[in-house]
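tool_call: predict_structure(chain=1)
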Amino acid sequence: MNIKMLKSTITGLAFLISGVANSGVIYDFDLVYDGSTFSFENNVSWHNLNFNVGDSLDITLKADQGDHWQWLLGSNERYAWIRDSCNSNTGLSEWEFSNNSSIVGSGSQNTSQGCIHFGPNTLNLANGTLFDQYQFNYTYTSGPNTVLSTQDILNNSPWGWTFNDGVRFQYVDANINEISEPLPLTILALGIIALASRRYKTQSN
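tool_result:
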């Protein structure tokens, strides 16, 4: 990873949708990937938040401008794996992958499991698909309340190995190419300068 930190906008906001019965609270989180792990803006995270029936969690993960992820396997993979407190809950999840604002994959799923994984293990994209943004929404349809933890957002966690392990997903930093491409031209220029200098010395003698 080049010495450039991704500067995607990160927000951690929660707001109440009022006037609609059972609409619940919508929690909106944008996260940034620095090449090895994720972080929340101003350390605002979902740690210790309680979620009720009707509450929704919206997550957006972005790569820096020009950067992207590449999907290396074709089916049944996890992405954005965020575990709750392992109560028995159900909910509706929807997800979408996009690249340069064009949708390259999407889907939805009703889940019923002990530990709800926000980013199910049934994602299917064509091998080699590129994307620079992942959006995920999960709405609780049952209780009791659950509490999310940030303990999984570590480099050696599912967040780490799924986002840049070279097996399931590979992160591509555009700056690496931007720096390496001029190198042959630089070598050629140095060669021309050296040749011109040699000819000048020969003529001087």
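agent: Confidence is low (pLDDT under 50) at residues 1-21, 178-183. Proceeding to next step.
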